[in-house]
Amino acid sequence: MNHLPEAWGRPRDDIYGAYDHQYVSASNPNQHTTSPVVTGTSVVALKYNGGVVIAADNLASYGSLARFTNVERLKQVGSHTVVGASGDVSDMQFLFDEQLEQLIISEEYQNDGHHLRAKHIYSYLSRVMYHRRSKFNPLWNVLLVAGWDDGKPFLASTDLLGTTFSGPALASGFGAHLAIPLLRRVCPDEAAVANITREQAISVIEECMKVLFYRDARSMNKYSMSIISGEGDKVEIEHRKDIQLKQQSWKFAESIRGYGAQVV
Amino acid sequence: MTSIGTGYDLSNSVFSPDGRNFQVEYATKAVENGGTAIGLRCKDGVVLAVEKLIQSKLLVPGSNKRIATVDRHVGIACAGLIPDARHFVSRARNEASSWRKGYYGPIPISSLADRMGQYAQTYTLFSSVRPFGVTSIIGGLDEEGGPSLWMVEPSGVTWGYFGAATGRGRQAAKAELEKLDLPNITVEEGVKHAARIILIAHGDNSGKDKDYELEMTWVRMPPNGEAEIAADGTVRGYGRHEEVPKDIVEQAEKDAKKAVEGDDDDEKMAES
Amino acid sequence: MSFLATPSYPQQNVPGGEPTQRHGFNPYADNGGSIIGIAGDDFLIMAGDTRHTAGYNINSRTERKVYRLGEESSLVLATVGFGADAKWLADTMKRAVDVCFPRLSMMKDFKFQHNLKDMTVSAAAQFLFTILYGNRFFPKYAYCILGGLDKNGKARLFSYDPVGSYSKEGERRAAAGAASSLIVPFLDNQVEFKNQYVPGTQGMTERPVEYLPLEKVEMLVKDAFTSATERHIEVGDGLQMVIVSAQHGVREEIIELKRD
């Protein structure tokens, strides 16, 4: 740092030429997020006959750089719900650590035995997302909300535009292309949920995480999974952290040019 | 109340020639008319309890709580003017919330107590406001100080305690609290003592013809919490402020009645 | 005066310079699907498919597009376009018409303010216009069809563009959404009898328009959607129909469409 504070934090004139002071002019239009910076990839989730399974890997990428490898992208919110986030990690942290945390603390002020359930959390999040997009200052995420609600499994999605939809099997990001077909094979519609067991759901989600690791260059082989199970009004949430992908097979890579041993 | 009529008690923030702020003293009087509130700092947590006098049979049992959750790990029990207490609690919640936003973690109980003390104190400085008619007992369990208990008075005085009592039965309650080995008892034992002390305090004052409800909460480590045992045996970690489960409160009340009535029997025997 | 000569914001696409490309935020999306409304004499059918899309992805096969605006009301709103705006419009209309929400919002609850009377169809129609046109400079990107029975039990139907323009007289049929260009000519022909002539008049006398019976309209709606499903990739999965009848009240039905 030299003796000219006004030059601090700006590109050096001798290398980059004179600084264009228009960039710091106060009359410039306000700039908001117009693209994500550090990002998380897919979240996948599937309902089964006693709950929902949701998973997301632990990677936060900076462009194509695998920047952070121990990021938790699933968050339990209250006693009934788990939210999974893909997209911008700082926006995710804002939502998880500030907004949702405060939401739950304020809800507990009343201490009346009532708790926010999955659809309440979902409604709140989708309104926040839509509100922010309407202010042209979006939170750059796709969120999956999984939970137990009113004696039934709950699963729904909202994104940076505030778009909302639900279904028995959902996946965000790359998973919308790669995992959804695998999930819909075992769960084509809401009626099929009744025939899927907890173990089946877990193994299908594991399979999806594996396929995503094979083909999504922004994914990693370590992930978290939450299993929300319920019976009547009772809910139990199991968090599995640092799950390593098992039984990988890279045989197929041998025949792909640039992947395996084959060089020409 | 020899000061009445001297004129020095009509405006807040005005000293009398002998150096007293009468409005603050009147506020303290308002507290002394409210139901007793106590707090016990045990080695693994904190117990808060209030004697909630039943103002009307038409009220729903369990309604109009006088112990409030301020953050996950903090509770406040109040004696005095309830509306003032509600505002005080609301301020405490804002302090706790803004601490989380600014420092990315739960507020230490000592910091919260300090801030609330300063807040109460500002209400003694201006003629346009009156002091809080409330004494609040702030209890919590944090990572730095372990279990801690503070009492904020209308003057802004904020002291830390092992056992704190305020409201109309405070004298009897204090006498009972002093008998306990508070630094070394557990929260479970604390609950039993609290029920007994509230019962004694209730019987000792003029409100005893009225029925009361025992409201009791504790702050202790949740089962999955990351606790540490300090050299002096106290628990460190972020506790959880919750209502004491109903069955435990009922049992504690039953035991308390037995113990207190037992005392009466002894006295009667001694008399005869 | 030099400060007037150049704008104070960074200039884009300066003549002779490199065109600057800014990656902006697009607040809209197209979530596909189609809706239809057909009015008979004393009944109307509002229908929409239940597919929700994003590009070539099917987000959901079970998202409804037709909303009843009150449990006791005959008012029905169908919206299609950008899903988030569409849902916002439906929620806003519901809150305005029904008593199911407490009066927290700026918008005063109609039913509370008017002695628990339902809003009339024409009032709701004008109200929807106000909302849409109120967002004229940041439009809600959704096409709406609003229907209901008037106080004489006659069916009324209104359709809107995203900034609110609508015909106060109402119409007999309306279609909007991804497959509207496929459905509109079909309804022109089958509901308004366009290009139909009275037999034996050598194409000189147009077939007179008449109200269709409920069964016929139901068939038309199903035909319209099965056909649209065949030809449009964003239409399919399920068909939600809300049938409002002066005689039989309101009935909702969901039937399957092809999922390919």
From TrEMBL, chain A:
InterPro entries: Ntn_hydrolases_N, Proteasome_beta4, Proteasome_bsu_CS, Proteasome_sua/b, Proteasome_suB-type. This is Proteasome subunit beta. Its main location: cytoplasm. It comes from Pyronema omphalodes (strain CBS 100304). Keywords: Cytoplasm, Nucleus, Proteasome. GO terms for biological process: proteolysis involved in protein catabolic process. GO terms for cellular component: cytoplasm; nucleus; proteasome core complex, beta-subunit complex. Belongs to the peptidase T1B family. Non-catalytic component of the proteasome. The keyword Cytoplasm applies. It is found in: Cytoplasm; Nucleus. The lineage of its organism: Eukaryota, Fungi, Dikarya, Ascomycota, Pezizomycotina.
TrEMBL record, chain B:
Pfam families: Proteasome, Proteasome_A_N. InterPro entries: Ntn_hydrolases_N, Proteasome_alpha, Proteasome_alpha-type, Proteasome_asu_N, Proteasome_sua/b. Residues 262-272 have a biased composition (Acidic residues). CDD domains: proteasome_alpha_type_3. It comes from the Eukaryota. Residues 237-272 are annotated as: Disordered. GO terms for cellular component: cytoplasm; nucleus; proteasome core complex, alpha-subunit complex. GO terms for biological process: ubiquitin-dependent protein catabolic process. It is found in: Cytoplasm; Nucleus. Residues 239-261 have a biased composition (Basic and acidic residues). The keyword Lipid biosynthesis does not apply. PROSITE patterns: PROTEASOME_ALPHA_1, PROTEASOME_ALPHA_2. Residues 8-30 form the Proteasome alpha-type subunits domain. Keywords: Cytoplasm, Nucleus, Proteasome. Belongs to the peptidase T1A family. The proteasome is a multicatalytic proteinase complex which is characterized by its ability to cleave peptides with Arg, Phe, Tyr, Leu, and Glu adjacent to the leaving group at neutral or slightly basic pH. The proteasome has an ATP-dependent proteolytic activity. The 26S proteasome consists of a 20S proteasome core and two 19S regulatory subunits. This is Proteasome subunit alpha type. It comes from Pyronema omphalodes (strain CBS 100304).
Automatic annotation (TrEMBL), chain C:
Keywords: Cytoplasm, Nucleus, Proteasome. One of its GO terms (biological process) is proteolysis involved in protein catabolic process. It is found in: Nucleus. InterPro entries: Ntn_hydrolases_N, Proteasome_sua/b, Proteasome_suB-type. It comes from the Eukaryota. Residues 1-26 are annotated as: Disordered. Its main location: nucleus. It holds the Pfam family Proteasome. One of its GO terms (cellular component) is nucleus. PANTHER family: METALLOPROTEASE TLDD, PROTEASOME SUBUNIT BETA TYPE-1. This is Similar to Proteasome component C5 acc. no. P23724. It comes from Pyronema omphalodes (strain CBS 100304).
